[in-house]
Amino acid sequence: MARIEEIALPRERQATAWWRFNATALLFLGPAMALVLVFFIAPVVITFVMSFTDLATSTGLSNWQWIGPENYQRMFRSQFWLTILGNTFVYVAVVLAFNVIVGLGIALLSVHVEAKAGGLFRSLWLLPRISPSVVYALMWTWAAASPPFGMINYVVEPFGVEPRYWIQSDPWLIVILINGFVGASFGMLIFTSAIKAIPEDLFRAAQVDGASALHVIRRITLPLIKWPILFVLVYQTMSLFASYEYIYLTTNGGPGLYATETWSLWAFHTALSNYYGNLDFAYGAAMAAILVLMGLGISVVMLRLFRFGQLVAEPRVEV
Amino acid sequence: MATAVIARAPGRSRWPSLVPYAVLLLATVPILVLYLWLFYSSFFPRIEGFRPVGDFTIDNWRFLWDPQSVPQLRNRPPIIPLTINTFVFATMTSLISLLVSSMAGYAFSRLRFRGRRVFLGGVLLLHSFPSVTLLIALFVVLRFLGLYDKLVGVILVQTAFALPFGIWIMKGFFDNIPWDLEMSALVDGAGRLRTWWRIMLPLVKPGLLALGVLLFVEGWNQFLLPFVFMPSGSQQTLSTLVRGILGEGRFVDYGLLTAVGLYYIAPILVLFVLAQDQLMRIYAGGVKG
Amino acid sequence: MRVVLEHLTKKFGDVAAVNELDLEMRAGEFVALLGPSGCGKTTTLLMIAGIYRPTSGAIIFGDQRVDHLHPKDRGIGMVFQSYALYPHMTVAENIGFPLELRSSVSKAERDKRVREAAALVQVAELLDRRPAQLSGGQQQRVALARALVKRPDILLLDEPLSNLDARLRHEMRGEIKRLQKEVGITSIFVTHDQLEALTMADRVAVMRDGRLQAYATPAELYAKPANRFVAGFIGSPPMNFLDAELAARNGSVVAKIDNLEIPLAHPPATTADTRAATLGVRPEHLAILPPGQGDANAEVYVVEPMGREQIVDVQVGPRRLRAIAPPGFAARIGERVGLRFAPEQIHLFDPSSGDRIA
Fold this sequence. Notes:
The complex is a heterotrimer.
Chain A (H helix, E strand, L loop, with lengths): L10 H40 L19 H8 L3 H32 L2 H16 L2 H11 L7 H6 L9 H4 L1 H26 L3 H9 L4 H12 L1 H17 L2 H5 L13 H10 L8 H25 L14
Chain B lengths: L14 H27 L4 E3 L2 E3 L25 H32 L5 H13 L6 H11 L5 H25 L3 H9 L4 H12 L1 H17 L2 H6 L8 H9 L7 H32 L4
Antiparallel strand pairs in B: 1-2
Helix pairs in contact in B: 1-11, 2-5, 2-8, 3-5, 5-8, 6-7, 8-11, 10-11
Chain C lengths: L2 E10 L2 E11 L4 E5 L6 H9 L6 E6 L2 E2 L10 E4 L11 H10 L6 H14 L15 H13 L5 E5 L7 H18 L2 E6 L2 H7 L2 E6 L2 E6 L1 H6 L4 H6 L6 E10 L2 E6 L2 E4 L10 E8 L4 E4 L6 E10 L4 E7 L2 E7 L10 E6 L5 E3 L9
Parallel strand pairs in C: 3-8, 3-9, 6-7, 7-8
Antiparallel strand pairs in C: 1-2, 1-4, 4-5, 9-10, 11-12, 11-14, 12-13, 14-20, 15-19, 16-17, 16-19, 17-18
Helix pairs in contact in C: 2-3, 2-4, 3-4
């Protein structure tokens, strides 16, 4: 029998094997890494770097200067920052509550009823999410429109409510409804699949024990989907803090000065879309930097919370 | 499935079992009304509340055959090139995202390499990271790369934004393919590239299709990116057109807007009807963990 | 081609799935890796295939070390437990896939070899079907054809029969054995079923907890198991074990179990005055006799007729033993019988190490 030492592995072949192994990974991951580097990682860095400059339309891309933390000081000297911060918290809290409660309600009801009907209702609730934001905003603009057009006026008239232009008179109501109906589907879908994953024997056992429907929901369903609920809460909080598309398309932060302006919309207005023509990139970047930090923070918390370790089983092929 | 979860006991009144339907219906009415109005309104001169004023007309749709007669469209690029732009944008972003994320998803699911855990953690982190906060810096990046106001630039940004989600989903699809098939392909003499292309991709085809539809929908609907990064007329998409008419500030012509809006949303509705089950599954599955 | 494993070790974290395994398979030999689940047999096979990398040790094909080689460069064919047929390809495409990857094989040549391989395993008429349209046995055959089509030097089979129903398993057992001899290819197959290993293999390597327990022909494993584990694992129904004490009696040696004394035909070479031993006897070597005869008195506990024979569990004092009786044997539960141990067929093992003493 030949001994191991006699047929030792040629060194360079060993090296080849190792090299090929990593080259394959590089080949598969290269395109993704390049795109993520340029359009994800770089912007995060640039947001922070830029927030310490005076880059704006007026300076152009070449004439800017370092100005230290002045943008941040300016931000917190602004007479509106507290209003906007307050708006942001109200917006996030109320829309989040709407999203999660309605999402949970639709999920529970839609698995309760016949499978086909339940699926139909879930489909309908998904519609706002898959519709173009501008069309969806158009529909709400109409619903909230002043007499004689708006649908809301006709609905509330019998209750003695004066007809009005709702975007002007009750901008928050519209902001919450438009975002609420769009965001509810997220929780709804996650809760639905979580509820469906509960072994049916548990429900049967509870039924045999004589539990009422509400009792089953409270004592079995809800405790068993508490992780999905927590997940949706955290995830939605983060997306809401960063979102502004639907507000921009309806109230656009108004009416008047910053009535429904949220932090992310403020950054967007300042840096990318305002009426004064001078796009203040750096100042907007300072506002965005705060959101970026928050986003990173919550993302890290989520990785911790939802047991990242479980998701990365080792590959079973070692070549 | 927990459909019959809390099925009614025999002999009990049937009325309570109708309550959930009633509640669901009531909650869903606003959505139904909005979409019905969109359809309805495009065929009448005007709608007041729920009541059409005037006779049925296709006048609102004349932007398709006689755009010059529509005052709101006179200074805007014609609708057909905009539709093509939108289609190119949606198709390209979904195809590139599919390709890139299926490659990366395969690597994360099947390959061993240094830093795999770290990279995968990074993907998950980006997946939950709100990418809209990066628009300001992307403005600078695109200017720097000379891709500002170009369709290519926006396509790349949208593709990159879709990647973390796509990679995560694709990894999940590949995770579900038995390891035996992978091992078998390797023993049969295939390299990893060929195994991915010849064995794995065909096996995740339904998933690829579902993800592709979802990416197409998101690309088709995308408003902020083209709005911010492609300001000049010829490069616009349907979303910026609708926004342009809606935001003009003068008298809002809902008839025209709903017709254009319906024209814009129709492909999405068709896709949705065809692929709603897959879409729902992928929306629900892609955000777990 | 011969296959040599030297000090082969595979660790997952701190756990050694395969521990210092030494094994040599001769060219053309059919070797079974046998053991309970988790014994490291599949890990060993996957290392030979090149799917897993050994932590240490060497794998040698012929005279060449291969542990650094990619699976595709090892000249192996493999049949997986699940058959791993590519569901999106037809049978012909499945069988042809390994050749498709070789530029040296022309399209015409490939078709020819696919048909040959299909004929060899008798699936020639199924070439246009898809795997989902095949029965388990047909899938198995296709998997064999795919493994053989590239004319590998070594054939690996991972639990090839475990997904078949009992009747088909028996059929394929013979089929694979015959095919292996026909093709004359060195073959290694993994199984947890001792019957498969005994019936099919030229030599059987019994593994447990990552270590080799025995490596011998089926006949040797049955007649002279190397240790108590092997003795208990091979044979069905399994061997009976009794704690005994060896003692000298009239110039020969007997095994004392409580007040029973069983004479031994082959006592251990070194006999201390008395020593403890585990006595093993297979059910087929326990004869049931009328009451009062034989070495021991027993009481019938339960009878399981198997057609060709009957398995009879008997109670001897506090112990329960299993014996095999001919079909004509009739006994009721609780009936008293005599029991005889065939003296030639008694195995003795060291009670602490489990090693065979005689």
